[in-house]
Every structure is written in structure tokens, then in C-alpha cells.
Amino acid sequence: MRRQVKRHVSAPGPLNAPQPVRVLTDARGRPIAVAGKSVETVDNEWLQEDGSWREKGELRRRYYEVTTVADGHVVVFRDLTRGGWFKQRA
Fold first, then answer.
1. What angle (nearest 5°) sits at the alpha carbon of residue 74, between those of residues 72 and 75?
2. Is 18 exposed, middle or buried (0-12, 13-18, 19+ CB in 10 A)?
3. From CA 64, how far away is CA 44, in angstroms rounded?
4. Which DSSP string do the residues of 18-69 spell out, in sequence order?
5. Are the C-beta atoms of 25 and 59 separated by less than 8 Å?
6. Taking the chain, what is the end-to-end CA distance rounded to the nearest angstrom?
7. What is the spatial distance between Cα 44 and Cα 53, in angstroms, rounded to a whole number?
8. What is the DSSP letter of 15?
9. In whole angstroms, what is the distance from residue 60 CA to residue 37 CA?
10. pLDDT in tens, 52-82
11. Which are the contacts of 3, defined by CB distance < 8 A and separation ≥ 6?
């Protein structure tokens, strides 16, 4: 008789969830390095705002799609409500 092995499986999380990241910026606040890797180009920039009617409160983020020397295309954003920088795949 084969012995059954119990495995613990955690619940799946959101796909492409934002991860905190260290970002260096120029005087205008645009990224010049992401996680220690130089930004070659800022390819796109946009502002996302949602009202305070949301359960989690107001959402204000400034997004940048950048190309870094090592990682290629990366999307980073600054949380303008709570502060901090975050990274997502492009």
C-alpha cells in the first residue's frame, strides 16, 4: 500500500502583484535607476487616479514604463497617496 503524503498548498495570489522596489530619480522625479540598474529610456508615463469611494481609499499613482540596462521593459510606479515605489512587469 502506498503512503499518502499531505501537501500544504497556499492560496493563489494576484498575478503580477506590485513589489516594493528602490528607485533613484532625477530632479523632476523621473526614474534614473531601478533596483540599482540604470534606466536607458523612459518609454511612457501616466497618472492613475481613482476616487475615495473605493473600499481601500483613494488611489493615486504615477506610472513609468522604462527600459533598464539589465531587465529590459519594466513598469514602476510611485504611490502618491501612501508613498513608496513599486515594480510590475511590463
1. 160
2. middle
3. 6
4. -EE--EEE-TTS-EEEETTEEEEEEEEEEEEEE-TTSTT--EEEEEEEEEET
5. no
6. 49
7. 28
8. T
9. 25
10. 665 666 789 999 999 998 888 999 999 999 9
11. none
